[in-house]
Design goal:
309 residues; alpha/beta; 2 domains
Length: 309
């Protein structure tokens, strides 16, 4: 029988919350690598992203070590079309698969109706829940506890954490709070593995992130990216297609003289070379797939399906 100091803990943890509260930034901060794309626009994360964190032996919460498998999820919001409803389903479905749920909120803002519904949904799941007040770097220190406490009345929480995903403040205590709530179990992934996401998917996500950053406010939400070619070599050869809903959007993505598409490609290539630690040749195409956000068949073709990638 294993002694307490030898017990290894493992489990899955859902990162849940409204759009743009910093869920993906939190995951990237914990891992020390960018595996989930981020932008200042809501609904950037569309798929469930897996991030694997290994806590070494000697931790107060898990003396024998632990493996925490985070599930970064799309922001939960009122979905009107098939695509947005699918994203919300992606997020909420994780509650049936995890040992712990993180409810991430903005400490610099008051609770809204969306926060109430999400908190109550997490509460109904019966899973241990940690309230995570993010963006405390935007709140004066003397006001932080009160700002986060405003969310405590929404549901029953097992613990509360105050963090800044952008600066790293409070991350270590949060990891300890998570680890001590995980059951004894084996490591699910090798110690050096950060994610189970295929590199093809990562390439498409990086291109989409750059499109989100550079395009006009209304255009990014009509953009989907698919990796058509991913060939190992020197350089790695990647070809991606950017899908939009209308011809007018295609023109905006390409830009005058192809300048916008070139800018998106250049920025994406730089990130991919850093992530893959290799030279990358990146080719981008733009195609129109009419009203893909409302067409179930188009959603499946673009990889937005509940089936495994």
């Amino acid at each position: 029988m294993a002694r307490p100091k030898d017990i290894f803990r493992s489990g899955y943890v859902a990162i849940l919350g409204r759009p743009n509260v910093g869920k993906s930034t939190l995951l990237n901060r914990v891992l020390g690598e960018k595996i989930s794309i981020v932008s200042d626009k809501p609904q950037t994360t569309r798929n469930r992203i897996v991030g694997i964190y290994n806590l070494p032996k000697g931790s107060p919460a898990a003396p024998g070590g632990a493996q925490i498998v985070f599930l970064d999820t799309p922001g939960i919001h009122k979905g009107k079309d098939s695509f947005n409803k699918w994203m919300v389903d992606q997020a909420l479905s994780t509650l049936s698969e995890v040992e712990v749920a993180l409810f991430v909120v903005e400490a610099n803002n008051a609770p809204g109706a969306g926060d109430t519904w999400i908190a109550q949904t997490i509460g109904k799941s019966g899973k241990p829940a940690i309230l995570v007040g993010n963006k405390i770097d935007l709140v004066p220190e003397e006001l932080r506890a009160g700002k986060v406490a405003a969310y405590l009345g929404l549901a029953q929480f097992d613990s509360v954490a105050q963090i800044s995903a952008s600066t790293g403040e409070g991350i270590e205590p949060l990891i300890e709070e998570i680890a001590k709530r995980l059951p004894e179990g084996p490591a699910y992934f090798p110690e050096d593995q950060l994610t189970d996401i295929p590199e093809r998917f990562v390439a498409a996500e990086i291109v989409r992130e750059k499109a989100f950053e550079m395009l006009r406010q209304e255009i990014p939400y009509a953009v989907a990216v698919v990796t058509d070619t991913f060939k190992e070599g020197e350089p790695i050869h990647i070809e991606c297609t950017i899908h939009v809903e209308r011809e007018s959007q295609k023109g905006i993505v390409i830009g005058k003289g192809g300048e916008m598409l070139k800018a998106i490609g250049t920025a994406a290539r730089k990130d991919l070379e850093k992530l893959l630690a290799a030279k990358v040749f990146l080719k981008l195409w733009v195609k129109v797939k009419p009203d893909w956000t409302r067409d179930p068949r188009a959603l499946r073709a673009l990889g937005y399906t509940t089936e495994d990638r």
